[in-house]
Amino acid sequence: MTVTQDNTLRVWDAASGQPLTAAIPEEARPGGAPGAGNGLGPRGQPGPPGTGAAPGRGGQANQREIVVNFSPDGRRLLVAGAGRQARVLDTASGQAMPEFQRLGTPISAVFSPDGKRLVTATNTGATGVVRLWDAATGESGLTFKGDKDPGPFNSVAFSPDGKLVVTASTTGVAHVWDAGTGEVVSNAMILGENNLWATFSPDGKKVLTYARGREPAARVWDTAGDAISALIQPETPSNAFSAAFSPDPEGRWVVTRGTGARLWDAASGLPVSVALPGERVAFHPDGKKLLITGAEGGAEVVLFAGDIGPAWMLDLAETLARCQLDRTDTPVFPQESRSIEALQRDAMQEKDVDQPMVIWARHLLGLTP
């Protein structure tokens, strides 16, 4: 699926590269900011938002981003957000299906994994409403109880088994809900006071939340709302910051993008790659490759190993790669590299000292007993 700069949407055959629909102009669907749009995450969950307008502040959700999701069978396309009327389009004809006109103007919406339901999050002023819908008839179903989380919301997503729903608010709070009862079943997952987004891991056992703005951050939680990872914090503020789990069943890694891309360990929240230049990033389905695209339209596929090792070893490798010798053969390290002293401190705290690569790295840093 593509969205052009004039907000024309088109669905394509990924194998042949041929269009499956005629161009769908903006008047046939919700409008939005040029270049905005959400991709698909693992198993039909909404992926990280696109590069539309920056999130609103002061309790205002981002009204300009478009949320686009295919149904699991690929026959329908749900387009919501941007402060416009939501539509469900037939992907064969590109025409809006009239039975879904009552969806209103949700800020976020997604199909359930079995394709039988829709969930929407709609904001009205300082509060929001989460509601289920019948995906066959467009009839309204269960309205979630907002006593523990009245919104307003930024995002909503189903768990892979369809039994849970996670919401994230404009005030930095996320909750997990029971999709059968509409009750909150988790502790509040709080990440500052910024606009927040949230999604499930592929196995449905973890939740990833992330916030943008002057203090972008991400964190991994269990579905009870208890923190698993340390706070994931990029070095540079970004209004385009987003995060996503890797597609392997456990969601072992988290990739972030903003002013660059970086890979993190989902269990610890520690970085497991150096910063990678690029504006957009996505996992390959095998979970072992990253596709990174830049502002000038170039693209690069980055391979990474399954067991990468401690983050300080990656910093050591980068520091050594940037090192140069002066005329007296004295090593000179760039200012942006981590100091040898800082690397030594991290290496001395390493617990897995029997790993061959750790032994080598500690020896290189002069720490071998």
- By CATH, the architecture of the largest domain is named 7 Propeller
Gyration radius from CA atoms, angstroms: 22 Å
What's the helical proportion of residues?
under 10%
Q: How would you classify the quaternary structure? A: single chain
User: Main sheet?
Assistant: 4 strands, antiparallel
Q: Total number of helical segments?
A: 3
Just give the CATH class of the largest domain: Mainly Beta
Question: What this model shows, in words?
Answer:
The N and C termini lie far apart (58 Å). Residues 28-61 have low confidence and may be disordered. It is globular, with a radius of gyration of 22 Å. Helix content is 8%, strand content 30%. It has a four-stranded antiparallel beta sheet with strand order 6-7-8-9, with no helix packed on it. It has a four-stranded antiparallel beta sheet with strand order 10-11-12-13, with no helix packed on it. Strands 3-4-5 form a three-stranded antiparallel beta sheet, with no helix packed on it. It contains three helices and 24 strands. The chain folds into two domains: 2-303, YVTN repeat-like/Quinoprotein amine dehydrogenase (Methylamine Dehydrogenase, Chain H, 7 Propeller), CATH 2.130.10; 311-364, no CATH class. α1 (311-322) runs antiparallel to α2 (340-349). The protein is mainly beta and 369 residues long. The chain has helices at residues 311-322, 340-349, 356-364; strands at residues 2-3, 9-10, 66-70, 76-81, 87-90, 108-111, 117-124, 127-134, 140-143, 153-158, 164-169, 173-178, 189-190, 196-200, 206-211, 217-222, 242-245, 253-257, 261-265, 280-283, 289-293, 299-303, 324-325, 331-332.
